[in-house]
Specification:
Largest sheet: none
Oligomer: single chain
CATH class of one domain: Mainly Alpha
Structural class: mainly alpha
Strand content: under 5%
Order of helices and strands: HHHHHHHHH
């Protein structure tokens, strides 16, 4: 499913669209696992955390309405993840953690964990921007950009491979980077 915004994905999830649910799951599972690791959950608990967070969204999806005035979706998602992680910690049978208030647990998250969360969120946004870019660019432009920028082939070699002029490779790079900046700006403006 190609969607334009996370807002439209949330709407599709709310309508029960199975493709949207699959996309939602694939998109946010890595963030849930990351946060679970930052909260020192073991692998089994991290997998259970994914299920609990997704189940929480499933139960609220039909009535969930994202309100930008109340904050960003990423902050809401992080809060849901942390609350479900605290629930898991409270249920531990091995008594390795004594959990009172969630603030006690969350206060122990190192600053670098917050940096990792933001980095992973940026990667998620960039991946979404690339998906949107595929809808806006010609295959040749995308392939030229990929070969020249991401695979770091020389412009002359890219031009020869794609049967285009070397100058076109530089034009494709500039065009794609401007489109990416625009798409990322659009996503950021949605405050999701």
């Amino acid at each position: 499913m190609a969607f334009t915004t996370r807002g439209s994905l949330l709407s599709a999830v709310g309508r029960g669209d199975e493709v949207a649910w699959d996309e939602f799951y694939r998109m946010y599972k890595p963030l849930i696992l990351l946060r679970g690791g930052d909260l020192r959950l073991n692998q089994t608990e991290k997998e259970e955390l994914v299920q609990l967070v997704m189940l929480s969204f499933f139960h609220t999806a039909k009535t969930f309405r994202y309100d930008r005035s109340r904050g960003r979706f990423r902050d809401y998602l992080k809060r849901v993840i942390q609350n479900k992680a605290c629930d898991l910690m409270r249920k531990r049978q091995d008594n390795t953690v004594s959990v009172g208030l969630p603030d006690e647990v969350l206060g122990g998250i190192p600053a670098e964990a917050e940096d990792r969360w933001e980095d992973e969120w940026r990667k998620l946004v960039l991946n979404q921007a690339f998906e949107e870019l595929k809808l806006r660019c010609s295959p040749t432009t995308l392939q030229s950009y990929d070969l020249f920028v991401r695979q770091q082939l020389p412009a002359k070699e890219v031009a020869k491979l794609l049967s285009i002029r070397p100058n076109a490779v530089y034009q494709h790079k500039a065009r794609v980077e401007e489109m990416l900046r625009q798409i990322v700006r659009e996503l950021d403006e949605q405050q999701l």
